[in-house]
Design goal:
By secondary structure, this protein is α+β, with helices and mostly antiparallel strands. Helices cover about 55% and strands about 10% of the residues. The protein has a four-stranded antiparallel sheet.
Length: about 170
């Protein structure tokens, strides 16, 4: 995989505990290593991964996630341990733990996706603010706008013309 598809990376970002994270399983797949090898490398370098860089999911979080993404349960050959979630900083720190050309390319792609997600969130907040401002401004104008439309409809409707004002010339009058 020379070029990492950004859409693939983006589809593996989840919102857990108010953090955008990637799971150890997905990262291992992208890096081309086994999940247990990735976790072993992280454990050997535990000082590099404080709680705001990486955390282990609770049973409830893992169950909710399992239902959402359709992974197998541990009784059917699935994983035996709760997954780890890596924040953007944790993924960045992985580049110092996993040293391969593929790891470098994957980290670059992941950092680009996280940056793009931040940009989209900022744009979304700006758009939501503008929409709320417009809604507040237009909210009181609804009745006025409706009255204007009704007036325009009356002017356009040819069946409801008002009678002409003025004199009429009668043809048969002498």
């Amino acid at each position: 995989m020379n070029k990492i598809a950004l859409t693939v990376v983006a589809s593996k970002i989840y919102l857990i505990r108010e953090h955008k994270v990637m799971l150890d399983r997905d990262l291992a797949e992208l890096y081309g290593v086994q999940t247990k090898a990735l976790n072993r490398a992280v454990r050997r370098n535990a000082a590099r991964f404080p709680e705001d860089f990486m955390f282990q999911l609770t049973h409830q979080e893992a169950e909710i996630l399992r239902c959402q993404i359709g992974t197998s349960s541990s009784s059917y050959g699935g994983r035996r341990y709760l997954p780890y979630a890596f924040t953007e900083q944790g993924v960045s720190m992985l580049s110092s733990v996993l040293k391969s050309e593929r790891a470098i390319q994957v980290n670059i792609a992941i950092m680009r996706v996280f940056s793009r997600v931040k940009e989209l969130m900022i744009q979304r907040q700006d758009l939501a603010g503008k929409l709320l401002e417009l809604e507040e401004r237009v909210g009181t104008h609804d009745t006025k706008i409706l009255a204007i439309f009704n007036a325009i409809k009356q002017l356009i409707d040819p069946q409801k013309r008002r009678p002409r004002i003025g004199f009429r010339v009668l043809k048969n009058a002498k």
